[in-house]
Amino acid sequence: MSNPHLVMLGCGRMGGALLAQWLATGAWKHGVTIVKPTPELPDGVRQHHQIRWCADLTQLPAHPAPSAVLLAVKPQTLPQTLPACAAILGTDLPYFTVAAGRRVAFYTTHLGARARLVRIMPNTPCLIGMGMTALHASPHATEADTDLADALMRAVGETVWFDDESGIDIATAISGSGPAYVFYFMECLISAAIEAGLDETTARLLVVQTLHGSSELAYLSGDALAKLREDVTSPGGTTEAALSHLMHPDGQLRLMHDAVQAALQRAREIAASAQ
Ligand SMILES: NC(=O)c1ccc[n+]([C@@H]2O[C@H](COP(=O)([O-])OP(=O)(O)OC[C@H]3O[C@@H](n4cnc5c(N)ncnc54)[C@H](OP(=O)(O)O)[C@@H]3O)[C@@H](O)[C@H]2O)c1
Questions:
Q1: Are residues 64 and 157 in the same domain?
Q2: Is a pLDDT exceeding 80 seen at residue 258?
């Protein structure tokens, strides 16, 4: 790519967080034009010299020509922005989209059957460079397109690619929504700690650091998670007493399956209604 230039449609919570990380890590060292109605730019973005802003695509300078587009607007904004993208930016360049729930078929309606599209489903730990991103490429995305998308998202965490687009729905229910499940688990454990007699500050410290340390141990260890759990569980001890509740047939496993099925069903409903 000679003189690469990224055009970003929208730069809010997710788009702004991704761009700030790419600029901070050097994953994107080139020019960026942010297209959004208001001139306010997020922290970590506005101070970079290679950033330009314009209010809408009709004001986009002719030079430099865009080499890639990132769609970071709300899914409901896309029907009004994609026709302008096709008319002004053209369709023979990669379009990366973080919009939840819109399938490839929706984009090809506006960008044509040969659209070079990459769907990107990040999660909020991307904000601190520890994200999990699921990706899916349309048939006409080139290897250079997928390499660029992968490099950008690896700058903010780990990536996994799905050949089958339905994998994005599953990833939405697991890694996309997953941070909320983990935060709720922490809230539950903090509540139990407070009921047992701790103050809130101490309870939060014990719980958050336990989750942090356990996640890091699971990430770094080659051991099965069941082995790591058994290492903490002495026969007749305190952990076993607690796990007899969590591992009850109607316990955490059942709840987790039901919760993920509910998320998956909702992801499919949203995708179907958005086409
Ligand atoms: N937040 C998450 O955790 C998360 C996770 C995965 C995926 N996503 C996806 O990320 C996308 C953005 O979500 P968000 O949370 O970042 O939303 P957001 O904070 O509301 O940002 C939306 C951005 O779109 C801009 N915008 C609005 N109308 C526009 C238009 N007509 N043309 C160009 N830009 C326009 C807004 O500009 P102004 O600031 O100037 O109004 C703003 O910068 C969504 O599609 C969502 O599905 C979000």
A1: yes
A2: yes
